[in-house]
């Protein structure tokens, strides 16, 4: 999917900040997620060891990715599934559409998959004239609203309960009893049930691809994966090539990290391993299973500075803990993946020229890296994009002039000290109340927030004052 | 060049060549599973069975302990009565159930799309997480575990394993894997609307485990 760069990141985030209900909606979900994750990790004393091991498992897989892909292909084929390879998003969509046509599909059910969103599968199915039924509750909501997901775990988190009720009242026959969450879930259960059972093809994603069994692993809380993949004649899986793990045991080690980091649970309600089509004599299941392995920029990341990003297990903790995401929400990012991991991935998927604002929409506070269950150094990767953007000449004249002036000062220590001395005094004057509410010539910094005023002198002034003192006397 | 060849060749170029040493790779992968107790939580009770029960109940499932398979119909009857449900109930077509005396209950093989309750069979329990493991097969319909509002699951206490890896170790190679293996951990639920938890999204809103302590 290409980024919806018009009207531009700044305009999108301005609109998000001006939206009166968005902040409330984001805070409700991310706040709960943050608390639950912290509680889950407090009960998991082995977390740090599990986290290093999880990172090592993913590194091992990436270092031997060709080996594991071939092993997976061998075992999946032996289980009766057919494996397809797609280098790009359009190749992946073409394969899925062709398989749907071969199956004579009129109605397709889909169990939430971010890879499916990444390759633009919802639109591709629509263009092919195939009815698409999203079965995850949140995906159902955004399908009705004609939107894209704003979060990788809670795609509809930008909508309040009242807004969901409005959509369901217009679409569901009969409409939900009232606008309580329970009534609306009940209504969706009823409406989607008949569609599950009459679909020709079911499409799911995969959280893991198990090399030594050829199985795909999917996690859901609602139970929509089985209802999507069992009744239809054909089951299609689309998955990124970085999802490989050596065995089911390795998947289990990563599942412990994924679920705690995503929702604060210990395991999702349904952890499903799909391995091939219906066996002879099986009481239910599809006649055919297809697995589409999608590269879409991933193989290139192996050799460049973004290789660590291939460890990502899509838990969403980085965005739940991101001060920027929590102000602007997911849609402002304009790509498939929002938040810190999205700001690293979107330039890979959509090109840096389309998305150069994203690596800059970051305070470098490091919380994302701190909460990442597979130790991805997200701020370092964002900084790498900033460097590339500079080298590619994508920065505007103001930025280049500003950085040029700073570089000139930084190379002349005397001048630098004088300038920072003036700067800190000016800021102290502006921040007499302790906070700076507006800045001349830099209103963008203070339009949506206040900055804390400086409390002391410059770094060098403090350094000189403290240098002679014993540690216990230092401020 | 096919997409397959171009992807694999891009990966090998990125890696600076292929290692092509399956034994060394397998040894490394095995090392990554060493000392499992250091990377997983301990059980919440002294025995796997007690830990399984404690976890299940914490997840919102209910557990009835019985002494033999013959007591399953009585246990099912007690649950249905307690929940105010009809005695007409969907039952898995397992040989184990066919020979039971269902008494006043009216077991049916068919499971309706909006079935109030169904009785199924779990292959394993997992003590670490309180999960029930269901495998698709000749005698187990996956849909029976997903369509009803109340999922009643018969589980033999002896089939409870301790940790996730203990179950995973049973799935090695495609020959040992069923089409669909699902770990059910508590009732279906969602937090998709404003993050507030609602039970019974698409799958069952209630899970009742009948734990059989037979030899």
Short description:
Chain A is built from 23 helices and 12 strands. With 475 residues, chain A is an alpha/beta fold. Chain A has 2 domains: 9-299, Rossmann fold (3-Layer(aba) Sandwich); 411-473, no CATH class.
Helical residue percent band of chain B: 25-40%
Oligomeric state of the chains in view:
heterodimer
State the fourth-level CATH superfamily of the largest domain in chain B. NagB/RpiA/CoA transferase-like
Q: Which topology of the largest domain in chain A does CATH recognise?
A: Rossmann fold
- The amount of beta strand of chain A, in percent, is 5-15%
- Summarize the largest interface: chains and residue counts: A-B, 107 and 76 residues
Tally of individual domains of chain B: 2
Main sheet of chain B, how many strands, which sense, barrel? Answer: 6 strands, parallel
Order the strands across the largest sheet of chain B as they lie in space: 1-12-7-4-2-3
Give the biggest sheet of chain A.
6 strands, parallel
The CATH C-level name of the largest domain in chain A is Alpha Beta
Can you walk me through this structure?
- The complex is a heterodimer of chains A (475) and B (215).
- Chain A has 475 residues and is an alpha/beta fold.
- Chain A folds into two domains: 9-299, NagB/RpiA/CoA transferase-like (Rossmann fold); 411-473, no CATH class.
- In chain A, 50% of the residues lie in helices and 11% in strands.
- Chain A has 23 helices and twelve strands.
- Chain A has helices spanning 9-18, 22-42, 47-63, 65-78, 89-102, 114-118, 121-127, 137-145, 161-171, 181-198, 224-229, 248-262, 298-301, 317-320, 325-328, 339-350, 352-355, 367-371, 378-391, 397-410, 413-430, 443-446, 459-467, and strands at residues 82-86, 107-110, 131-134, 201-204, 208-210, 215-220, 234-240, 244-245, 270-274, 288-294, 435-436, 451-452.
- Chain A has a six-stranded parallel beta sheet with strand order 1-10-7-4-2-3, with helices on both faces.
- In chain A, strand 5 and strand 6 form a beta hairpin.
- In chain A, helix 3 (47-63) crosses helix 12, helix 9 (161-171) packs across helix 10 and helix 16 packs parallel to helix 19.
- Chain A is globular.
- Residues 1-5 of chain A have low confidence and may be disordered.
- Chain B is of the alpha/beta class and 215 residues long.
- Chain B folds into two domains: 1-32, no CATH class; 43-212, Rossmann fold.
- Helices cover 26% and strands 23% of the residues of chain B.
- Chain B is built from six helices and twelve strands.
- In chain B, strand 5 and strand 6 (131-135) form a beta hairpin.
- The chains are: A alpha/beta (475), B alpha/beta (215).
- At the A-B interface, helix 2, helix 3, helix 4, helix 8 and helix 10 of A face helix 1, helix 2, helix 6, strand 9 and strand 10 of B.
- Strand 9 of chain A pairs antiparallel with strand 9 (180-184) of chain B, so a sheet runs across the interface.
